[in-house]
Amino acid sequence: MRTLRLLPLLTLTILFSVSAAHANTITVSPTPVIAGVGPYNWFYGVTLEGDSQINTGDFFTIFDFEGYISGTQQTTAAGWTGTSSLIGTCPAQDPFPALCAVADDPAVPNLTWTRTGGVILGPGANNPALVLGIFSAQSIFNETRNDFWTSQDQDNQNGIPNEGAGGNTNVPVAPIPEPATLLLLGSGLAFAARMRKRVV
Question: What is the pTM for the complete model shown?
Fold first, then answer.
């Protein structure tokens, strides 16, 4: 199942890398800091780059956050609200709706933070990115795999009010059992089946 998901993610990697390369956008860190001893806290650094701004209703989404513990989304930044849903919030402009539909696993929660406060202005061209804050959530897992994020903000340079962007980041994933563990589990099930036949 995970192997089948690699093909659309490879396509997303190429397309989102092009989108994320645009200098006016919200950006999510590709390598979150993981802390704790089960449940695990996942901390993502989020920045705003270039001649851009964030308006009320703009957002960013981290897709397929396995093992999410409901209600644990937090941020160090005021004026943001965190939500989770099985269908991730995605920018409306092409090509994002189609890409999100292909890559989003509808059985795994997605995390979205939406701007509920006032306007945030970007740092302008040729200036360091503006740090928006640290955004976090808890998962029962601490193993990682590559997935993606999308965001929506305003590109002041091109006058696009709902510009979409995306890129790669790491998210939690359920550990794959070792072959020896699977063998033990299989033999245990076979033994239980034999015992059941004897009782019946």
Answer: 0.81
